[in-house]
Design a protein that fits this description.
single chain; 357 residues; alpha+beta; twelve-stranded mixed beta sheet; 10 helices; 35% helix
C-alpha cells in the first residue's frame, strides 16, 4: 500500500453522479475478467442497480482510490430479516495490476470490523474460475469451500425443440390435475402470498457444507424485488404450476432479461415443493418457459443458470436440455475469529497506514 491510496466509504444508494461513473468504470473492468464474453454495463443501468437495492438489505461499501480513480472495492451485505442472523456476504475486488500489494487485506479489515459491529460471525463469498487469484486470497485468510457449482449455459441454436414439445405432452398426462400460469413483470397482487409460499421450494436445493439455514421470503420482499427489477430495466417472466383442485402453487420457474444484453437470458429459480415432485412438473415448467422464449424473444441465443454440482435432479433436466458447464464457481465461508486471527498475523508486516479508516 502506498500513501497515494485512500479508502473511501460510499453510500451506494445516494452517491454523486461522478461516484457512480467511477464505480461503473471499475466494475466493468472487473466484470470483463469475471464474464469475458459479456458487454460492459451502461452507466445508467449500474446507477439504478445501486440506487434500487431493496430496503431490507444494507450494504457497506468501500473503494480504494488514487489520482486515476478506483483500483479496488469491498462490500458487506446484510439482510435485515430473521433468517441467518449470523451471516454476511462480502466481496473484495482488486485491479489485476494492483494485486498482492496488501490492498485486499486492508479492505478485509473494514469487512471484519463491519461484521463484528453487526454482531455477525460467518462471512460468505464466492469465486469463479475466470479469476483464479481470488482462491489464493481466500485460502490465506482461512476460508473453506462450502459448495461447488457452475454457471451452465445453453446455446438455443443447438436446442432440440421437439424435446420441449415431448416434455409438455408428457406432463399433461402425468400432471393432469395441474395448470400453468404465466406472468410478465410484477407478481399479480392476488397471487403474491401464494407465490411467497412456493418460493420455499428453493430451500430444498443442496447447500453442501455451508453453515446456513433456510431463507424465507415474504410478500413484501417479493414486491420490493419486483420494484427493483422494474426500475433497473429488467424484464422478468414467471411461470407457476397450480393444482386445479386446491388452487395451491406446486412449483415455479423464472427468467430475467435486459435489453442491454439482448442475446443473454438468465434462468433464475426453478423449484417444485417436495409433496408435488416426481410428476414431471420441473420439466414442464422449464419446457414451457423455453418455448415462450423461443416464440417471443428470438434475439436470445444463450441461456445461463447457476447449479450446485451436487444438485443431481436439476442437473439431469438441464443436461437433457443441452446446458453445458460455462464457468465454475465456489462458495466459501470463514468464521469471523479466523479472519481476525489472519489480520492479527499480518498487521505488523503487511498492513501499511492508509488514510480513510
Amino acid at each position: 500500500m502506498t500513501a497515494s491510496l485512500r479508502i473511501e466509504p460510499v453510500d451506494v444508494r445516494r452517491a454523486a453522479p461522478e461516484t457512480y461513473a467511477a464505480i461503473n468504470a471499475f466494475m466493468n473492468e472487473i466484470r470483463a475478467e469475471r464474464l469475458p464474453d459479456d458487454p460492459p454495463l451502461p452507466l445508467d443501468e449500474e446507477t439504478q442497480r445501486l440506487r434500487t437495492i431493496p430496503p431490507f438489505i444494507d450494504i457497506f461499501f468501500w473503494t480504494v482510490v488514487d489520482e486515476a480513480g478506483i483500483v479496488a472495492y469491498a462490500s458487506t451485505t446484510i439482510f435485515r430479516t430473521p433468517d441467518n442472523p449470523h451471516l454476511v456476504d462480502f466481496t473484495i475486488a482488486v485491479r489485476r495490476s494492483r494485486r498482492r500489494r496488501g490492498i485486499g487485506t486492508r479492505l478485509l479489515e473494514h469487512v471484519a470490523e463491519a461484521t463484528a459491529r453487526e454482531g455477525r460471525s460467518l462471512l460468505v463469498t464466492d469465486s469463479r474460475s475466470t479469476v483464479p487469484d481470488a482462491e489464493g486470497f481466500l485460502r490465506r485468510i482461512g476460508a473453506q469451500v462450502g459448495l461447488e457449482g457452475h454457471t451452465n449455459q445453453l446455446d438455443l441454436r443447438d436446442l432440440d425443440r421437439s424435446l420441449l414439445a415431448r416434455w409438455q405432452a408428457a406432463a399433461r398426462g402425468r400432471a393432469a390435475g395441474f395448470e400453468l400460469l404465466a406472468w410478465e413483470g410484477d407478481y399479480p397482487e392476488e397471487h403474491v402470498e401464494a407465490f411467497a409460499r412456493v418460493v420455499e421450494a428453493m430451500n430444498s436445493a443442496p447447500r453442501g457444507a455451508l453453515r446456513v439455514q433456510d431463507f424465507h421470503v415474504t410478500p413484501d420482499h417479493l414486491r420490493e424485488w419486483s420494484r427493483a427489477a422494474r426500475e433497473r430495466g429488467q424484464e422478468r417472466w414467471t411461470i407457476v404450476a397450480r393444482e386445479r383442485s386446491t388452487g395451491r402453487f406446486a412449483g415455479f420457474t423464472e427468467v430475467y432479461w435486459h435489453p442491454n444484453r439482448p442475446e443473454i437470458l438468465s434462468q433464475e429459480g426453478t423449484g417444485v415443493l417436495p409433496e408435488f415432485q416426481n410428476r414431471g412438473l420441473g420439466r414442464w415448467l422449464k419446457a414451457a418457459m423455453l418455448a415462450k422464449v423461443l416464440r417471443e424473444r428470438p434475439q436470445v441465443t444463450k441461456v445461463r443458470t447457476g447449479n450446485a454440482d451436487m444438485n443431481a435432479p436439476m442437473l439431469k433436466i438441464n443436461r437433457e436440455l443441452g446446458f453445458r458447464p460455462y464457468i465454475s464457481q465456489r462458495v466459501w465461508q470463514v468464521e469471523l475469529p479466523q479472519v481476525q486471527a489472519y489480520l492479527d498475523s499480518v498487521r505488523d508486516t503487511k498492513l501499511a497506514a492508509l488514510p480513510g479508516r
